Amino acid sequence: MTRAFAVLRVVVASPNGASLARIARVTRLPKSSVSRMLDTLQHLDMVEQVGKRGQYRVGHGLELLAGGGTSPQVLAQLSRPHLQSLVSHLGEDATLSVPEGDNTLYVSQVTAERTVQVQDWTGFALPHHTVAPGLVFLSTWEPERLGRYMQQDLVRRTPQTLVEPVAMMARLEMVRRDGYAWTHREYSDDINGVAVPVCNPHGQAVASLSVHGPSYRFPARGTEARIGRLLCDIASQLTAELAGFSF
Question: How far apart are CA 119 and CA 124, in angstroms?
Fold first, then answer.
């Protein structure tokens, strides 16, 4: 057990990956022993082997243990079935995003099979106030932090982008009340979206599930509340899964 932890310490300390030779050199263990331990750790998903040279790095299983399941990579992995479920129910693209400073970073997307599609937003970082997931994150901030954000020169992406502080505060209060946020042509003139928070075991919003589609067809008239509740239900399932990884 002590030797296995020694191997893990080297891997954790090597964000770009560590070779078998380096791990053996640092731990002063025989390469054959290190190789067997790495095979076992890889089977347990504690490490993974990547790259042409077979570098070892931290696996998803260890990320779950260390971070309570809240790293973007783990969240993307856990959320995949839920995103697919949303696409199946609603026929529009579903995404998972995380807060990154004053921006919303999209880390995963499942795209619906439709003739007219919205682009894949994976990897895009957009100002919080312009997209539904960002409004969800802003709604969870304490007043001082939210006030600093609102004092900035907020970008107005479209004529519908809300940037006035008083109106924004009233809107965020509605998001807190409803549990979900809608945006209508606020980042792009032809996109509407809805989002809900995903919380860690401490009740903090660490991610957001969202669905977006062309404004001419999404949402259908009179379905906003029903869609919002559906997202809340699915986000609750993902939140419960994250709670299962707390220690």
Answer: 11
